[in-house]
Amino acid sequence: MADKRLKEERRTFISSVSEDTLHNLLDDVLTEEVLNQEEVERVKKKNATTKDKACDLIDLIIPKGSCASQKLIDYIFSPNEQETKVFTLIIDECVFPSSPFI
């Protein structure tokens, strides 16, 4: 299930996503009508940091179910250059978890 996968990747996504990529993802989910304008504006204005915005975005998407979660996952893993950077960070973190000793 996509919503389960999104939950599993939540922490890595939140710690990896850039402000520019997050705004692109918000535009994408708005265009696909996964979120409405009010929800997108809430994410942008309610949260002070990129991490808070990313957390809020995922927390809005997951309850909408597997289809909505899959659409966000598709955008995260899209060939778009900025989203590919998020994908690379997620894969690197999964394969080579950061160590506090490095």
Describe the overall structure:
The chain is globular. The chain is 75% helix and 0% strand. Helix 1 (2-16) packs antiparallel against helix 4. It contains six helices and no strands. The protein has 102 residues and is an all-alpha fold.
- Coarse morphology: globular
Could you estimate the helical fraction of the residues in percent? Answer: over 70%
Give the C-alpha Rg: 13 Å
Give the SSE string. Answer: HHHHHH
Could you give a short account of the major beta sheet?
none
Structural class: mainly alpha
C-alpha termini separation? 34 Å
Q: Give the overall average pLDDT.
A: 80
Domain CARD: 1-76
InterPro entries: CARD (IPR001315), DEATH-like_dom_sf (IPR011029), Pept_C14 (IPR002398)
Organism: Sciurus vulgaris (Eurasian red squirrel)
GO molecular function: caspase binding; cysteine-type endopeptidase activity
